[in-house]
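Page 47, continued from p. 46.
Same chain as before, 158 aa.
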Amino acid sequence: MKAILMFAFASLLTVGAKAQQSAITPAAPGVTYGKGAVAANAIAVQELPKAFKGDSVYKGQITGKVVQVCTKKGCFMKLEQANNETVMVRFTDYAFFMPQNIVGKTVVLDGTAKVTTTSVEDLQHYAKDLGKSKEEIAAIKEPKKGSEIMADGVLVVK
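Result:
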């Protein structure tokens, strides 16, 4: 009996996650998520290191190409950076999520970027959410210093 209840609960969670993802508006030019964003005065994500002030924070509009999105429910995405690096983008208070088809799209974010160090535990968690293999996850053994963006809104540009 206990096994049947556990199976039923797991099935509901899976169905709920798929329903939640399908309820997210597909990415297309002009679609906004969260509070939205405006393309005016946006800096390219590659320019972030120059834009950081003395406290390593930049607030404003940032544009870039999405190269990865959380496969579980779209709770984070990554923007393309130089040298095969990426910049993690999370969403303020998990107020909104991204559709799977946003990968490859150019977006403008309105939010706050800062220099961070991501722990091994968090890096492994993100890798799991991206659908990486157990071997790829186990290979993560060092924290990573880089930039992270907390977005209040996202606008799909193209």
